[in-house]
Amino acid sequence: MPRVSQDHLDARRRQILDGSRVCFARYGYEGATVRRLEEATGLSRGAIFHHFRDKESLFLALAEDDALKMADVVAEQGLVQVMRDLLAGGDHPADWLGTRLEVSRRLRTDPEFRGRWAERSQQLTTATRLRLLRQREAGNLRDDVDVDVLTAFLELVLEGLVSHLAMGLPAAGLGPVLDLVEETVRRHRPGAA
């Protein structure tokens, strides 16, 4: 039997994650049945669960994949850029939003999931905090507020934006709001207008 290349395995895993993201966003965790996952990915249950132990492992991998992508953006451009990207509609924001909302719901209702997710959820907070520390060292971040408070502030704004979008409220016009959020954490230099 021929061996399957790592590139092929990685591509198959990406196919499963991308299809599953759409399925979980559309139907929620409970509604994303194995049959629907098969339809969304174009693969059999055997192929799906060859890569993931069970549906929860698949969902956690998907949520972790999203968190890692966000952490990469945060490290390079900051948490406000993640919010701008969400408003701009890049890289399937509706599907990302669906996954994010499902994570929030499960955190509220499923203690076992909460325990498993706690191991993974720190990535975004860590990336935000490190970015803010670098900005403070560069003299770009206000120094009258603790970095942990600024981190919590930015995460709270993100959660508010997620809730706003989840309620179907308009995203148009929120760019200036994010400008204000950015301005709030910047260092104000004496004599600057």
Question: How would you characterize this protein structure?
Answer:
With 193 residues, the protein is mainly alpha-helical. The protein has helices at 6-31, 34-41, 45-51, 55-77, 79-88, 93-109, 111-137, 147-166, 175-185. The radius of gyration is 19 Å and the shape is elongated. Residues 10-70 form the HTH tetR-type domain. It comes from Amycolatopsis melonis. It holds the Pfam family TetR_N.
Task: Quickly describe the structure.
With 193 residues, the protein is mainly alpha-helical. It contains 9 helices and no strands.
Which descriptor suits the 3D outline? elongated
**Over all CA atoms, what is the radius of gyration?**
19 Å
Strand count, sense and barrel status of the largest sheet are: none
Q: Low-confidence parts lasting 5 or more residues at pLDDT below 50?
A: none
Structural class: mainly alpha
Protein name: Helix-turn-helix domain-containing protein
Domain HTH tetR-type: 10-70
Keywords: DNA-binding
Pfam families: TetR_N (PF00440)
Fold blueprint:
Elements: H1 6-31, H2 34-41, H3 45-51, H4 55-77, H5 79-88, H6 93-109, H7 111-137, H8 147-166, H9 175-185
List keywords for this structure.
193 residues; mainly alpha; 9 helices; Homeodomain-like_sf; HTH-type_TetR-like_transc_reg; DNA-binding; Tet_transcr_reg_TetR-rel_C_sf
